[in-house]
Specification:
globular
């Protein structure tokens, strides 16, 4: 399974275990880590660009590059440039064809959250499918899975970039309602995993077992649990703007100050998304959300693409708003 050291760049102010019993939907509050008093957006952008290769390329293609690298003579690393070009080309092609949907930094973040916090393997590299002329552009941003106590857990990922938490969760609620009400798309997503996924990385026995789980036509009642996972990266202008003086005290006091302010907003965020899901007729028991706070989501997006060597797109509009977002 892929590894993603997300915790080195993103911390958690409030995990799912905030309430006992947990009141649906599950909600976690994540945020970009600080370098003393400064939220380190640049470091997060660099990390996400490094993870883009694992998100964008299929397991089969990655292993082919690894084999070529190992076969190189006299320390030849030229294949590394091929990997970078392949990833860069995938992102450029998608942004050119579908500029209104160019939010891949959020998709890579969602991938990293699923791998690191849910310990869930990526079943299909959606980016490689999105750039295929034979595949629909619309659909989930990721499909991951884990096995616990003999039950397969399928995670359907939806990522959002937003100027505020409330607008991001509203977009998520609308998206998950659309997917839940579209049986054709639901079956299509499972079909892509079975036919085009990363299942070849598994051993024969595990692969056969997983194929049975994913056979929604022949074995619709196979033991699996399906959950929608929303990863909403948004601009938290209020709390990042609430600073305390720099001194020679504990180095993490600035991050802890922000974390406490952020955690205090848990009830407001949970109420917002609960109401938004209810308005869309979505079962909150089947939803898990991660809010990821950064000072400026537009800056994160620009620095992510800059790290990949991709120029900003003219279609990119600023998402960050200066005012405090209101409850919805």
């Amino acid at each position: 399974m892929d590894q993603s050291p997300l915790d080195d760049f993103v911390s958690c102010a409030q995990d799912f275990s905030v309430a006992t019993p947990i009141i649906p939907p599950k909600l976690a509050l994540l945020y970009v880590r600080f370098q003393e008093d400064i939220p380190n957006i640049s470091s997060l952008a660099e990390f996400l660009s490094s993870q883009a290769v694992n998100y964008a390329l299929s397991r089969r293609r990655r292993e082919a590059y690894i084999a070529a690298l190992k076969a190189g003579k006299n320390g030849d690393l030229s294949v590394a440039s091929q990997v970078h070009r392949a990833v860069k080309s995938a992102f450029i092609e998608f942004r050119t064809e579908y500029p209104s949907r160019a939010s891949e930094v959020g998709e890579v973040l969602a991938y990293s959250v699923a791998v690191s916090r849910l310990n869930a393997a990526q079943l299909v590299a959606k980016m490689s499918l999105k750039t295929s002329t034979n595949m629909p552009v619309h659909g989930l941003d990721g499909i991951h899975a884990s096995v616990k106590d003999g039950v397969l857990n399928i995670f359907f990922l939806e990522s959002k970039l937003a100027g505020s938490a409330a607008s991001g969760t509203a977009d998520y609620a609308e998206s998950v309602a659309g997917f839940g009400g579209n049986q054709k798309q639901y079956l299509q997503e499972y079909g892509m995993v079975r036919d085009l996924g990363n299942l070849d990385a598994l051993g024969p026995e595990d692969r056969e077992r997983l194929m049975e789980y994913l056979d929604v036509f022949g074995k619709p009642n196979a033991p699996k649990r399906e959950r929608s996972v929303g990863v909403i990266c948004y601009s938290e202008t209020k709390h990042f703007g609430n600073k305390i003086p720099v001194d020679d005290g504990p180095l993490d006091k600035h991050e802890m100050h922000f974390s406490q302010l952020y955690a205090n907003d848990y009830g407001r965020h949970h109420k917002n998304v609960t109401n938004q899901l209810a308005a869309q007729g979505v079962d909150a028991n089947k939803c898990m959300l991660y809010l990821v706070a950064v000072p400026d989501v537009d800056k994160l997006r620009v620095e992510f693409y800059d790290s990949l060597g991709i120029a900003p797109a003219l279609a990119d509009v600023d998402l960050t708003v200066s005012e405090v977002d209101e409850d919805e």
